[in-house]
Every structure is written in structure tokens, then in C-alpha cells.
Amino acid sequence: MLLMLVFSIMSAGFFYASRVDAIQGELTFSGSSQVSSNLGGNQRTSHVIFIMFTFTSPLLLAGILASAVSLLRRINSER
Rounded distance, CA 71 to CA 51, Å? Predict the structure, then answer.
């Protein structure tokens, strides 16, 4: 169940990432040697932040859920 939750959040992140113009531009130019120059500095910064959030969110979610399960086990064992 935990694995399914993590993968569903990852797929939702990838779905929303596919709608971002900067990522669509990167995907269209990934096969060619052309460089997309239509992105400004501010758009590139938000693009990098979004990508880093997409990569780290499953790890953060797994850590939070693992901590919650361990806390619940500790509370139940003390009873």
C-alpha cells in the first residue's frame, strides 16, 4: 500500500511536469543537438525547483510515512 501511494504521487508529479512548457521544450529537444534558448533565467529557476521537488518528494513522503509507522508501532508496544 505504501509503495502504491509513493508511485501514485510520483506519477502525478510527472503528469503535471509534462504540462510545463519548459519541460515540453526539453523533451522535444532531447533527441536533437539544438539548445532551447527561449527560457529566461527566472523560468529556468522555477523549472529547476520543480524538477528537484519532483525527484525529492517521493523520498520525503516515504520518510514521513516510515516515521509515522514507527511512531505508531512504538505507541502500540507501550500499551
Answer: 31
Q: Is 31 helix (H, G, I), strand (E, B) or coil?
A: coil
Range of the domain at 15: 2-78
CA dist 47 and 62 (Å) reads 24
Question: Domain total for the chain?
Answer: 1
**Cβ(47)–Cβ(20) under 8 Å?**
yes
Q: pTM of the entire structure?
A: 0.44
CA distances from 68 to 27, 50, 77 (A): 37, 26, 14
Could you tell me if 57 and 9 are in contact, meaning their C-beta atoms sit under 8 angstroms apart?
Answer: yes
pLDDT in tens, 34-63: 555 555 556 667 777 777 777 788 788 888
- Collapsing DSSP states into helix, strand and coil, what is residue 39? coil
